[in-house]
Amino acid sequence: MNEKKLYFIAIIPNLELRDKIQKIKEEVSMRYKAKHALKLPPHITLQMPFKKDESIERALVQELAQFAAEQPPFNVDLLGFGCFAPRVLYIKVVNHAPITELQAKLEKTLEEKVNFDPKEITKEVHPHVTLATRDLTSHKFHLAWDKYKEQAFNNTFTVNSIFLLKHNGKCWDIYREFCFNA
């Protein structure tokens, strides 16, 4: 029997913006003792973590490559900070439509081509870039939110690929990038 591995699918900003967001995540982690979000790169989730036999990895990679090749690039605007009280602090995505449309198409591909069970599929996404989650205590959350709620953050990046991430037992690694149709 093949071993099940943990994967998820996401949009990841370009390296320059990724580094900028990573610095904010590290600041939040140091200041508010919330390290969980550091286990993965800055991203916008398209498909929540899922377990699959490693034996289907090749088929998954092929289908994601084909799916991505059929997608047009689009821009994502990031503006300011938001929260899901009392545990999550994030950077806001302004224009949800292109991401939710991409996610809906991905959902269909995963169900039809990779035989995902409908229960495995992420049905609704609220696009955002997480800075702190899970281990951010309620008290520290309120301190962090007081600091970031009025703070400026404004950036735009072009989405021209999606990423498959794979858990290595401790954190998430970028496993594959799938480029869109240029």
Automatic annotation (TrEMBL):
The keyword Lipid metabolism does not apply. The keyword Zinc-finger does not apply. Keywords: Ligase. InterPro entries: 2H_phosphoesterase_YjcG-like (IPR050580), Cyclic_Pdiesterase (IPR009097). GO terms for molecular function: ligase activity. It comes from the Bacteria. Signal peptide: none annotated. This is 2'-5' RNA ligase.
